[in-house]
Structures are given as structure tokens and as C-alpha cells.
Amino acid sequence: AGDGSGPVPGDGAGPPAPERVLFPPTFSVSEIKNKQRRHFMFLRWKQQQRKEKLALKKKRRKEREALGDKAPPKAIPKTIENQRVYDETTVDPNDEEVAFDEATDEFAPYFNRQTVPKILITTSDRPRGRTVRFCEQLATVIPNSHVYYRRGLALKRIIPQCIARDFTDLIVINEDRKIPNGLVLSHLPDGPTAHFRMSSVRLRKEIKRKGKEPTEHVPEVILNNFTTRLGHSIGRMLAALFPHDPQFIGRQVATFHNQRDYIFFRFHRYIFKSEKKVGIQELGPRFTLKLRSLQKGTFDSKFGEYEWIHKRREMDTSRRKFHL
Fold first, then answer.
1. Domain at 91-316, CATH from 3.50.30.40, 1.10.645.10, 3.40.50.10480, 3.30.540.10
2. DSSP string covering 59-99, please?
């Protein structure tokens, strides 16, 4: 080429030169002493890794297209979830014992359509603005729910009043440093009571590309991945918050998705773009729950009998062990 750099690709002087490798195989970013230079080289190294990964992906796709029907099946990537340790309490839908428990548990009147959900949403004592707004938005998601702001009234005094007024469930939103951080759900009149740790709370105004305000239509409810006996109970408890017959004309969906024992809540509206395409808009709010305990009966922090308590040091011995 006249400058000592070798033949130029496409000029007929020979095959194109192979792409120059940016980093040797033994390259280590940590050996660079200068902080700015180290950061710059790390970004270049990450960029090269992405290019190599994309090139390998394209190569494999071309090989599969060339082989056609003879192509080997795609390898299933290993994840923590599909490597999950088997739980002996996993629910079989055809199990007679499970069917009997469902017919006789505290939620049977709801699933038999003998009762209509009526929810009381309250807070910890003297809540701050963010918790108040979250409760108000949660009330627009759960039909037939009423918000009451506590001012020093103990839960043990609230529960009998709720039962007398035919409330079927009590939700208590706790806060710490002005941020909602806990949720207590008690099914009335006989329990059970679940205590969740709450995190990643996002109000409607904090969600990007959100849809318009939700309507008063009864939403559909989707429960994902509640597979064990404990998870089955929690799923039935969450389902009992919503009326049994959704109004599909509203196109609103409330989703409780369990993944690695974290319950992610999302509220969407779906839109039919065509006969084959459907789009969704998130309406909010959104939050994440982590079960801390499940107690028999209504709320009783001192003398209550617990069905299940999360004990970190005893239960979290394996990353592949899940309880819901």
C-alpha cells in the first residue's frame, strides 16, 4: 500500500488482513496504574467482548440456517431457576389432599363465590406523604377497597371493627424513613396473616411511558410461579383481594409474579393493535414483596402461632433453594 501496512483489502494484492487483536490473552486491566487509563481500557475491553459475543452468535445462527432441519436443538442456558433444588412440597394440581385443603381453608368462601372482597387499607401511625400516595394508588388497583389513616389506634382494636363492618381483608402499609418498606395482609375473620418486606416502590408519576389513569373496571389477576404448598397459600391469599369476575372490557391486568421468592407486582392495560399484535401500558404503582412470615389467625405479634417464618441463616443455605 506504500506505507508499510500491508495489502489493502479489495485491491487485488492478496487476502484481507485479519482483524488486529486489541488485547493479548493475558491482558489484565488491574495492572494499569493510572485510574483514568484503567477505566478507558476497561471500557474498550468490554466493547471487544461484546463484539466477539455478537460475532459468535451470528456465526452459530448462519450454521443453523445452513443445516436447516438437521440443526441440533438449541442448548438451554443454565439459570438459578431451572437449576432449582426440588422442593418436596411442590403442589400437584391433581392431588386429592390439595383439593381437600382448598375446599376447607379460609379462602374457600371466596372461591365458592359466597363472599365478595371488601378491603381496608391502612398505614403505620402518622404516615408521610409518599406512603399516603401509595395507599391511595393501591386503592385504585384493588376494587372495593377503602383507605383509613391510623392515628395511634392499635391493630388489635382495628381488626374487630373491620369484622363488624364486613371487611374481608386488612392491608397495613408500614414505612421507615418516609419510605414504604413493609406490608401486612390479614384475611378476616379467621386469618391467616402474612407479613411481607416491601421494596422497589414506584408511584405512577415515577414510571416512564405510563398509560392513563386506571378505570374502575375489575381487573384480571395473573399469578405466576407459586408452586409449593406455601406459595399456593400465598397465591390464594393474594387472589382473594380481587372480585372473582373480571370485567374484560376494561383490559386491565394485575400480575403477581414470583421469581426466586420475590413477588413482583405490576398493573397493566393491554391494547389490541391488530388481530395478531397486542401492546401493554403500565399503569402503576409497582412494588416487590418478600415473605417474612405466615401466621395462623389474625394479627397477633406476641402470642400468634406461626405457620412459616423466614430464617435467613437456616433457610438460605443454597442460592438454588426457594420456598414459594
1. 3.40.50.10480
2. HHHHHHHHHGGGSPPPPPPP-TTTTPPP-TTBPPTT-HHHH
